[in-house]
Amino acid sequence: MTEPSHRYVVPTGAAPLVQLKGIAKYFPGVIANQDVDLEVMPGEIHALLGENGAGKSTLMNILTGIYQPDAGEIIIDGYACQFASPVQAIAAGIGMVHQHFKLVNAFTVAENIHLGWSETPRRASAPALEERTAALAQKFNLQVKPSARITELSTGEQQRVEILRVLARKARVLILDEPTAVLTPAEARELFKALRDFVSTGNAVIFISHKLDEVLEISDRITILRGGRKAGTELAADCTPAKLARLMVGRDIVLADMRARPPGAAAVSSSPVLRLRDVSVLNDNGHTALHGISLDVRAGEILGIAGVAGNGQRELSQVLTGTRPAATGVIEIDGHAIAHANAADFVRRGIGHIPEDRLHSGLAPGLSITANAVMREYAKPPVTIAGIFRPRAAKALARQIASVADVAIPDFAMPIRNLSGGNQQRLVARREMRIASKILVAAYPSRGLDVGAINTMLRYIVDLRNAGAGIVLISEELEELLNLSDRIAVLYEGRIMGVLDNDRVDIDEIGLMMGGRLRGEKGAAHG
Amino acid sequence: MADFRLQRLPSTTPAAALGARILAIALALVIAGVILAFVGKNPLALGLQVVTSSLGSSFGLEDLGLLVIPLILTGLSVTVAQQIGAWNIGAEGQFYAGAFAASAVGLFAPLSGGWSLVGMGVAGAFGGLVWILIPALARAYANVNELITTLLLNFVAILLVYYVSTDAWRERGGVANSATPRIKAEIPEFWGLVHWGLPIAVLLALAMAGLLAFTRWGYEVRLIGSNPAAGKYLGIAARRHLITVMLISGAIAGLAGMLEIAGTVHRLQGGISNNYGYLGIMVAVLARGSSIGVIFAAALMAFILNSGIILQTQGLTTSTVLAITGLILFLTAIGDELSHYRVVRDKS
Ligand SMILES: Nc1ncnc2c1ncn2[C@@H]1O[C@H](COP(=O)(O)OP(=O)(O)OP(=O)(O)O)[C@@H](O)[C@H]1O
Ligand SMILES: [Mg+2]
C-alpha cells in the first residue's frame, strides 16, 4: 500500500473552495438533508460517509445543480452561488462522476469527451477530436483510448473517461459517488493516484464510499451524515473504522463471525443440486466468456467465487440462473439436465438471483416500488389469482419485503429509481432470498451497502444456507469470501483455476490463482 | 428579504397537473383572443359563438360525439403501443386499412343487416392488424425501428384507398366520382347523429385500462415496456408480448376506420381519416400513457377541432384556426411540465 503523498494541513487564511451552509432538501415524506454544513479546502480529499439513505447522493446532487436546495447556501470561493443545472455547476468548476455512468455507448471516447462542451470546435473531424482527447489525457495523466467505443471499455476505463470529461471542463472540485464499488483493486489504486495528483495543485475531491479502509487511506477529512443530518467532520488521521462505523449508525457495530454452523443447520447434501458440466458461454459480443466450466453447488453450502471482476463472473451468474444460455455443455438441476434454459423456469425451481447490475437488469427503474418488489411472485397467489393481478395484494407483499429489508418507504407508488442506491439493493436482495429455496446466486451482494447493512445481508445469506439452500457467492472481497464460504472457487479469464476447502485455504495461493495460476501449480504464473 | 425560486419535483400531484392544464388552456384562449382582436374580430362574441354552438346545442354536442369516437380509438391505439415501449406512428394507415377492409365486406360480402356489421367490425380490426403486422415482426425479430416502418405504411394505405375509391370501387354515375357506393349496413344511432360506436370506444378504453392494471399479462407488458432487460431477467416472453401488443394497437386503429365507415360516413373515400391517426398521437401525448386519460384527452381534442370548424364558418382562415389549436396544445404541454415545479421562498 502506498503512503499518501501529502498530509493535509488546513492552510491558514485560505478560503474554502466549497462551503455548504444549512442545506435542507425534502422529498414527500422524507427529509433527505437538513442543516447540513460542509467545508472543502483547496488541496483536500474530503470523504462523505453515511448509511444507505443518509442523503449523500442528494447533497452532492444539490451541489452540482441537479436538485435545488429547500434551504441553505452554496458558497464557492467565498461567493454565494445558485446552480440551476449541472452545466452551471461545471462552469463554476464543480463536476461529478455519478455511480451510474452517463456516457453514450455507441460513441467513441473522443466523441463522449466533446459532447455538449462549449469548447468543442465547431467543425471537427474525428481525428481532430481524437488528437485533442489524447492531449487532454496526457495533461491529466489519465490513460484512455480516444478512438475506442465505450462498449469496448472495461468499467474502470469508462470511469476514467467520465473523470477526464469532468477535468477537461476545468473542474476544480471533482465529486465521485461510490467510484470504487465497480473497480478492481488495481484500478482503485490507479484512481487514488490520479486523485492525489489532482489535489496536489490546489484542487479538491469529494469522495463518497462505504469502504471504510479505503476512506481512511485516501481522504484527509471525513464528514459523516446520519439520517440526512451532519453527524460530524473528523480528520482521517484521528479515525479508526470502528469509530467511523459508530458515528454512522450511532452505536457500535459488532461484526459477527459467520463461519460457525449452529446446531440444527441443514447438512451439506451429498449430491449437487445445481451442476455445470463443461459449460461454455458466450458474452454479448459473441466471444467466449466461460471456457468449459464444471462446478457443483450442494444444498446447505456457500460456494464462494473469487476473482478479479470481469473474468466471467457476469456470465457465470447468468448461466447459473437461466438468463443466458450455455453454448455447449450441460446444466443439471437435481440431476436432471435442463434442455432450454429459461429464467422463469429456474425461478419456479427455487433459484434466486441478485444480479451485479441491479438497477439495469434486476429492476424496472421507472415503475413503482410495488411493481418492482413483486417481480418474482407476481404470477402466483396472492398477487395473481386466476390471471387477475391484484394491486392491493401486490402492495401488501411489497410492504412485507420492505419491512424485512429494513427500508423505510414513504410511498409505494413512487418510482423505485427515487430510492437510494443501497436501499434498492436491499430490496432486490430480500426479494430474491424469498424465492431462493434451492439456490441463491448472489453477485456482489454487499456492493453499495453500508457497513451495518452488509453485516445484516451476510447474516441473512448464512441463515438461508443453514435452512438448506445452496449459495453461490460472487465477490471481490476476499475477506467476505473467507468469512462465509464453505468452499472457494477461483475464476480467471473464464476458467476455474481450482476449488479450495475453506478450512485449508492459503490466502497467498488464492492470490496467485486469481492472477491465473492453476491450483497446485508451482513456478511461474500461468499465461 | 425573501427570495423566490422555482424548484422541480420528480413527480406531480393530480390536482397540480389539472390546474396547470386549465391554466394553460385559459392562457391560450386569452392569447388567441388578443390576436383576434388585433385582426378586427370580436373575440368574446366568437368565443360565445363557439361555446353556444358546440356545447349549447344538441347539434353541436352530437358533432362532438361523432368526432370523439375515432379520436378515442386512435389515441388508445398509440397509448397501448407505448405501454410496451413502441411508437405507433401508423395509426393513420391502420385506420385506412381498417376502413378499406370493412368497406370490402360491407360492399361485397353476402351478409345481411347485423351480420354484415359484425363482419365489417371483424374485417376492420383485422385490416388494422395486418397493416401493423410487418412493423411488429420487423421490430420483434430484427429490431427494426417501428417509427419509420409504421409511418411509411401510412402512405401506402392512403394511396390504396384513393385508388379503390376513385377507380375500382368507384360509384359509377355517382355525383363526385370519388367515393364508393353507399354501404347499406349502418351502425344504429342512439342519440341524434351519435351512433353506438361511442360507447364501444369508451368501453374499449376502459377494458384496455383494466387489462393493463389488473391482469398478469398487463403487469408483464408494463414491466417490459419500462425495462426490456428486466424482462430477460425474469424470463418473460418479451417478443411475444411485443407482437401481441402491437397487433392490438393496429386492430384498435383499424376498428376506428370501420366505425367511421359504418357509423358516420357510410362510404369509402379518400381523406376519410381526417388525420385522426396523427391526431391520435397528440391525444396519447396528452393522456400521458393512461388509457382512461385517453377518453378525456380525446374529448378535449374533439372540442378544439370542433371549435376550429365553427370558427372557420365565422370567416377565420384555416391557418388561424390551426395556429390557435397549436397554441392550446403547446401551452398544455408546457403546463404539464410546469406542474412539476413549485415556487419556494428562501428566508435569509
Ligand atoms: N427523487 C427523489 N424522490 C423521492 N425521494 C428521494 C429522491 N431522491 C432521494 N430520495 C430519498 O432521499 C433519501 C436520501 O437518498 P440518497 O440517495 O441521498 O441516499 P445516499 O446517502 O446516497 O444512500 P446510498 O448509500 O444508499 O446511496 C432516501 O430516503 C431516498 O429515498
Ligand atoms: Mg447514493
Give keywords:
heterodimer, A: 527 residues, alpha/beta, Rossmann fold, six-stranded mixed beta sheet, 17 helices, globular, disordered N terminus, B: 348 residues, mainly alpha, 13 helices, binds adenosine-5'-triphosphate, binds magnesium ion
Characterization of this structure:
The complex is a heterodimer of chains A (527) and B (348). By secondary structure, chain A is α/β, with parallel strands linked by helices. Chain A has helices spanning 56-63, 86-91, 109-114, 126-140, 155-168, 185-199, 212-218, 241-249, 313-320, 343-348, 358-362, 369-373, 391-404, 421-435, 451-466, 478-484, 507-514, and strands spanning 18-27, 30-40, 45-50, 71-76, 79-81, 94-97, 173-177, 204-208, 221-226, 229-235, 272-282, 288-298, 302-306, 328-333, 336-337, 351-354, 384-385, 388-389, 439-443, 470-474, 487-492, 495-501. Chain A has four domains: 15-93 and 172-252, P-loop containing nucleotide triphosphate hydrolases (Rossmann fold, 3-Layer(aba) Sandwich), CATH 3.40.50; 102-169, no CATH class; 272-365 and 415-514, Rossmann fold; 367-414, no CATH class. Chain A is built from 17 helices and 22 strands. In chain A, the strands form five sheets. Chain A has a six-stranded mixed beta sheet, sandwiched between helices. A six-stranded mixed beta sheet of chain A has the order 16-19-20-13-21-22, with helices on both faces. The relative contact order of chain A is 0.11. Chain B has a domain at 70-273. A two-stranded antiparallel sheet of chain B has the order 1-4. In chain B, strands 2-3 form a two-stranded antiparallel sheet. In chain B, helix 3 crosses helix 12 (291-313), helix 4 runs antiparallel to helix 5 and helix 8 crosses helix 10 (238-265). The mean pLDDT of chain B is 86. At the A-B interface, helix 10, helix 11 and strand 18 of A face strand 1, helix 8, helix 9 and strand 4 of B. The complex binds adenosine-5'-triphosphate and magnesium ion. Adenosine-5'-triphosphate is lined by residues 27, 30, 32, 50, 52-58, 418-423 of chain A.
